[in-house]
């Protein structure tokens, strides 16, 4: 197999893998929001009403994370809704969304560390941060492979 054939095969595999990871990201964000809703009394007590470490809002970052995850997923699947999608921006917009999501999730985890260090909720945020990092890397790889293998 030639190097060009290998790159094309990698590109063909990276497209569905990145799409499935984006779907899993939205599902994870929804599940994390549900977990936060279930734990809301504890989170209100330890995060929202913490007099020792200062009060923080644990709800708004979850909404921001969901909007970023859903936006990236919508852009990835935009070529199915209208011809051509957003062109090369179909690759670039999700990379920006995942980068921002990684930034906000890191900040959210650090904020939680001040209040509920090493709790189950904090650990799920840490796992989510790793997952979004993998998703960001795969999106960048998908973009690079797309640029190398197509004339699009």
From TrEMBL:
Residue ranges annotated as transmembrane are 20-39, 60-82, 88-105, 126-145
What keyword terms does UniProt attach to this protein?
Answer: Membrane, Plasmid, Transmembrane, Transmembrane helix
- The answer to whether keyword Transmembrane applies is yes
This protein's superkingdom? Bacteria
The name on file for this protein is Uncharacterized protein
Q: Which organism is it from?
A: Lactobacillus crispatus
